[in-house]
Structure of Lipoprotein:
Amino acid sequence: MAKLFRIVSLGLLACLAACSQAPRPSSAIRTQGDATWHAVVPEGTARYELALGEVSSGAAPEHRVTPVYPAALLAHCPPPEEVRALLVVSAAGKVDDVRVDDEATAAADRRLYIDAVKAAARQWSFVPLKVERWAADANGESHVVDSQARPFSLAFDFHFECYGGAARVTAGDAPSAPGHGAK
């Protein structure tokens, strides 16, 4: 019995000694990049004005692709970067254009972030913005008289961040109000 106790004790001590060793640094630390985004309504944004009896719906993201953090920037892990992009969406809900205000004058590093945003945002799709006109018939029952899909635009802020040898691009929700955005 004493021999069994000694064997179990030695085994337990060996396990504890192994657990107390500091982890070895990995020689192949893989840096990664992520992105986040959230919808914004810039000051002065034009909106569709609905007439009496009109109702809008849609204009909500249906499919979103997260931008890829620029691999060329991971090595020096720059400070966080924000890119505001205006997504111009067709009446069918497809992104026709992605506009970034300072794109023409952007420095080389910022241009990499802008390119990542544009490449991802061009793959987004939205539930089409539909404007319906309702009216009441002679019996007082409401029904759709006319329905029309319309183009729209929405602005999003994309946030790129590098931390601890890795990068992150954060994501947020789209606006909750249908038809929210510029014409």
Observations:
- Residues 1-31, 173-183 have pLDDT under 50 and may be disordered.
- Residues 2-20 form the longest helix (19 residues).
